[in-house]
């Protein structure tokens, strides 16, 4: 199982569905333009899966997208993890499933942080390209729930918002320092 955890291409492929459902959640939470092509693509890809939970939504919080963001990668992760087990599900204890679920939660949170970092970098790069103004405004709207909290407390310098930089540095610190240690802590609980 540990070799699967550190096999980056397999891990990345397992969490692509989670990424898409997180984007769906973030788009709905930030109230992004529904008719934007990116929104339409994510909506059409995720719509059949969200019908399973009957589009559980509270105001602009899409609980169904969050559940799918956690459950679909967990199912894929569990199937990949049990691939080498001889007896299949019968030889796996409840503790093993709990550990797999805890590791999955860590990876889901880590994937969310990675997505936010990628969105922040792409937004920063696109801000220097005048012809990409439309997509940049869309990405800024998408990131507003994350950067908006810090906008309240960190004053901007003219038209430059420092909250963008603070969020990037904070997420980078969590991504490189806290998440690996937390993952090894969860793996240590399995022993």
Automatic annotation (TrEMBL):
Task: Say if the entry is tagged with keyword Transmembrane helix.
Answer: yes
Tell me where on the tree of life, at the top rank, the source sits: Bacteria
Annotated membrane-spanning segments are 12-30, 63-85, 97-129, 153-174
Which GO CC annotations does the UniProt entry carry? membrane
Output the Pfam families linked to this UniProt entry.
CCB3_YggT
**Keyword annotations of the record:** Membrane, Transmembrane, Transmembrane helix
Q: Which InterPro entries does its entry note?
A: CCB3/YggT
Protein name per Swiss-Prot or TrEMBL: YggT family protein
Source organism: Ruminobacter amylophilus
């Amino acid at each position: 199982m540990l070799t699967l955890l550190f096999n980056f291409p397999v891990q990345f492929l397992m969490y692509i569905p989670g990424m898409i459902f997180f984007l769906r959640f973030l788009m709905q939470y930030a109230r992004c333009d529904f008719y934007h092509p990116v929104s339409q693509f994510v909506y059409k890809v995720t719509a059949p899966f969200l019908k399973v939970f009957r589009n559980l939504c509270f105001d602009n919080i899409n609980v169904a997208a969050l559940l799918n963001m956690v459950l679909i990668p967990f199912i894929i992760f569990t199937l990949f993890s049990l691939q080498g087990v001889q007896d299949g599900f019968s030889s796996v204890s409840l503790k093993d499933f709990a550990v797999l679920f805890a590791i999955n939660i860590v990876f889901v949170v880590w994937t969310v942080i990675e997505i936010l970092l990628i969105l922040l970098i792409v937004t920063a790069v696109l801000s220097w390209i005048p012809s990409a103004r439309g997509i940049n405004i869309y990405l800024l709207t998408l990131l507003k729930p994350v950067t908006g909290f810090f906008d309240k407390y960190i004053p901007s310098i003219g038209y430059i918002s420092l909250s963008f930089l603070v969020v990037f540095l904070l997420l980078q610190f969590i991504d490189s320092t806290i998440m690996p240690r937390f993952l090894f802590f969860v793996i240590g609980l399995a022993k």
